[in-house]
Amino acid sequence: MTSAIVFPALSPVRRRDLGTFLMISPYARQRLAEADDTLGYHLADALADAPEDDYSPPVQVAVLLACLALADWAQQELGADPAYCAGPSFGERAALSWTGALPAADTVRLVDEIARTEQEYFATEHRDVVTHSFTRVPELGELLAGLAWYEISGRLDTDFHMVTLREDELDGFKAAISDAGGYSLYTMRPPAHAALFTGVRDRMEQVYARYELAAPRVPIISYHDGAEITEPDALRTALLDGFVRPIRWLDTIQGLRDRGVDRLWIAGPDTMLAKLRGTTAAFDVELCDLRRALVRPRR
To answer: What domains lie within the chain, and their CATH numbers?
Structure first.
């Protein structure tokens, strides 16, 4: 079987589970110690003290470490040997480190810096905009017709969508989703993946300019269009475009299938990708998440 490793996007994760994994897993402990040296503070303490914000810098760095530690665990304990890599949204930053395109210490610094830059930018810009995720709605025409303004921020399955809209229209939009037989999942603040956010892309271009990327040791499959990324310049562009272009997971699936991939190793705290019908229909899925890695085999 030809396999790929996928690092998931940020999704709600229990802070206690994340902290426990970082402290207990031998693969995570090593990466945690290295991150402490890089950051100059104890990440576990910062994680415990972080505000209830899924996107705060300590949470983002902790999720990065968990993704990479789970990839280590999958390779060492389960025999994973991926020929390709993918990482929708936040996951592409973990892909940077795993593929060797950026050293681990630099990836920790980068993720911390990105998180802080996002916080600063959205503290003053686009405060009236959110990104809402929902499912069980195959067609969007009637839903979107009722909005004054919107952008499609993601299509993860045939009936799973992400839409960026004005927050004052959110309640009505959620009601319309329910009326259409759909199910609202979560609302992102700050919002993401929309052409409106060229300002944050410009700021991130300055951030990324401080880091030198190398060619990844295995190809990265784009979450925008399923293309193969093998060169540093193309990788840098893809990372920056993630702030202004939608997630198109079905295109990623097709890109992986076109290259003969039939097994996915999903490494990280994931509440979404492993459950999507498009994912499970196309691949043999191995979910390597916090719970699975911490379960001790029965004697």
So the answer is: 2-124+197-294 (3.40.366.10), 129-188 (3.30.70)
pLDDT tens digits along 240-296? 999 999 999 999 999 999 999 999 999 999 989 999 999 999 999 999 999 888 875
Q: What is the pLDDT of residue 55?
A: 82
Work out the angle between the directed axes of helices 15-24 and 26-39 (0-180°, nearest 10): 100
Q: Who's near 180: CB < 8 A, 6+ residues apart?
A: 137, 142, 143
